[in-house]
Design a protein that fits this description.
The protein has 18 helices and 19 strands. It is α/β, with parallel strands linked by helices. It has two domains: 289 residues, Glycogen Phosphorylase B (Rossmann fold), CATH 3.40.50; 185 residues, Glycogen Phosphorylase B (Rossmann fold). Strands 12-11-7-6-1-2-5-4-3-19 form a ten-stranded mixed sheet, with helices on both faces. Strands 15-14-13-16-17-18 form a six-stranded parallel sheet, sandwiched between helices. A three-stranded antiparallel sheet has the order 8-10-9. The longest helix has 16 residues. The structure holds adenosine-5'-diphosphate and alpha-D-glucopyranose. The site of adenosine-5'-diphosphate has 17 residues, from helix 1, strand 13, strand 14 and helix 12.
Length: 504
């Protein structure tokens, strides 16, 4: 079974959020299931810098007006997982974010940037490099045109699976983009990729993929309703049983408090003493009072409406009055960034780190007692999973993947030892404060708190079970027989190519 995994980001080559984490951990887990899987993504400068063993394997014919395209092969750092980077300097090598410039404006040519990714991916999947995919697994709107392009290929063509990581990001562009992105005008219809008068990459994916998945069972149900469907609920409902939710897992090696090199002291459920040291180090590094009895509440997140950043902002005075410290690692909407920074100056127990800091996110997960992981909607959410693994108790809204992964600490679940966090229902300040207040009250009972931490740490959120579901789906769509791997398979070696040459 050969699978091409197409994504706009994969850790540590490029990351803006959870998509990058999944795009590393899921292909690795599928390789362990015996699948010959390769990642294909843009060659941003950061990706070129970090790729293991980079070498040019093909110069691409001019396509969509892009004349400088090459394919670079290598492996994902610290693994043997093959990666192809689509190198088009005019599209991907620029200073700024993956999708936006330094001022937070979407790159004006995003439509072309990601259409090009799909066109190249289609060629690779169909054998450009003496390797043909049985299945193409495309992710989020950035790879949304790929199933449509493959549907135009003569049989036998690769089967297609598309995963929605966030329905709110749709890749919608004016109709007149069609010639530039190489899509014939006949696809601009209600049955095709037309969406309220625009071209929608995400709608194209939903219409033309063999199967569609999203990243938790509850979100899969929610998006079939107008409240969560972002206008696409009807299109998804039309796909019936072709659409399902498969819960994300976590990379249990990268996110492991027993081995995490970012921490001042490692620890595990068997010996959790190191967590106190991580907390003291965090307090010290951020200029907070060093005190293990003071509850430390963390928030590591994109600062957006989705993540209820506005409500968290309003809850900070309550946290301070409750005697808690508050630590934030985040970036996003500039208005939220400024408002949080202002709060940091006002309260000595509040530390605000604006920016994207991978190591700081790990240290926060280890040093905090409680993690705020609320959301108005949440396809899956990974920070609550990392929190539990680090013995940090999440406070989350009962929605999407948060509802599927956190068990609220009530009288019954505390006594039958299934509780792992605190949940609330309404996306408002009173509800967030009420749930956080319940967490702070339990923190005052050291024995009960310790038991809750150990229950959270005992949860298995590793990828194995969910990767087996994806593997089964790959086999269903491709028609190839499914024999689950008994032994972990070694990721296959990269393709040999006589044109290989070093690029640096
Ligand atoms: P989303 O993808 O919607 O942002 P997830 O919870 O699925 O939410 O994934 C977020 C990922 O991004 C996690 O790995 C989290 O640690 C990381 N993250 C979010 N904000 C920051 C930040 N400012 N610095 C470092 N890591 C961050
Ligand atoms: C998206 C979602 C998040 C999910 C992540 C990985 O960014 O917002 O809920 O965990 O993708 O699938």
């Amino acid at each position: 079974m050969r699978a091409l995994f197409v994504t706009a980001e994969a850790y540590p080559l490029a990351k803006s959020g959870g998509l990058a984490d999944v795009s590393r951990a899921l292909p690795l887990a599928l390789a362990r299931q015996g699948i010959d899987i390769r990642i294909l993504m843009p060659a941003y400068s950061s990706a070129l810098l970090h790729l293991k063993n980079p070498r040019i394997v093909a110069r691409l014919e001019p396509l969509l007006g892009v004349e400088d395209g090459t394919l670079i092969s290598g492996e994902l750092p610290d693994t043997d997982l093959p990666v192809w980077l689509v190198d088009a300097p005019s599209l991907y090598r620029r200073s700024g974010g993956l999708y936006q410039d330094d001022d937070g404006r979407d790159w004006a040519d995003n439509g072309l940037r990601f259409a090009y990714l799909s066109h190249v991916a289609a060629k690779v999947a169909c054998g450009l490099l003496d390797w043909k995919a049985d299945v193409v697994h495309a992710n989020d709107w950035h790879a949304g045109l790929l199933p449509l392009l493959l549907s135009l290929e003569p049989a036998p063509r690769p089967a297609t699976i598309f995963t929605i990581h966030n329905l709110a990001f749709q890749g919608n562009f004016p109709r007149d983009i069609l010639p530039a992105i190489g899509i014939p005008d006949r696809f601009f219809s209600a049955d095709g990729l037309e969406f309220y008068g625009q071209v929608s990459f995400l709608k194209a994916a939903i219409r033309y993929s063999d199967r569609i998945t999203t990243v938790s069972p509850t979100y899969a149900k929610e998006v079939l309703t107008p409240e969560f469907g972002c206008g696409l609920d009807g299109v998804l409902r039309d796909r019936g049983d072709d659409f399902c939710g498969i819960l994300n897992g976590i990379d249990a090696e990268l996110w492991n408090p027993a081995t995490d090199k970012n921490l001042a002291q490692t620890y595990s459920a068997r010996d959790i003493a190191g967590k106190r040291i991580c907390k003291a180090e965090l307090q010290c590094a951020l200029g907070l009072e060093i005190c293990s009895e003071t509850p430390l509440v963390g928030y590591v997140s994109r600062l957006t409406d989705q993540k209820m950043a506005d409500v968290v902002l309003q809850a900070v005075p309550f946290l301070v009055e409750s005697g808690a410290q508050f630590v934030l690692v985040g970036e996003g909407d500039p208005a939220f960034e400024h408002a949080f920074e202002a709060l940091g100056g006002r309260y000595p127990g509040v530390a605000i780190q604006i920016g994207y800091h991978e190591a700081a996110a790990h240290r926060l997960q280890a040093g905090a007692d409680i993690l705020l992981a609320p959301a108005r909607f949440e396809p899956c959410g990974l920070t609550q999973l990392y929190a539990m693994r680090y013995g940090t108790i999440p406070v989350s809204r009962r929605t999407g993947g948060l509802a599927d992964t956190v068990v609220d600490a009530g009288a019954a679940t505390l006594s039958n030892r299934t509780a792992t966090g605190f949940l609330f229902d309404d996306a408002d300040l009173a509800s967030l404060e009420d749930a956080t207040g319940r967490a702070l009250a339990l923190f005052e009972e050291p024995l009960a708190w310790r038991r809750l931490q150990l229950q959270a740490m005992a949860q298995d959120f590793s990828w194995d079970a969910s990767a087996a579901q994806y593997a089964a789906l790959y086999h269903t769509v491709s028609g190839l027989p499914y024999a689950p791997a008994r032994e972990p398979a070694v990721a296959p070696a990269p393709v040999a190519n006589p044109e290989r040459q070093a690029i640096r």
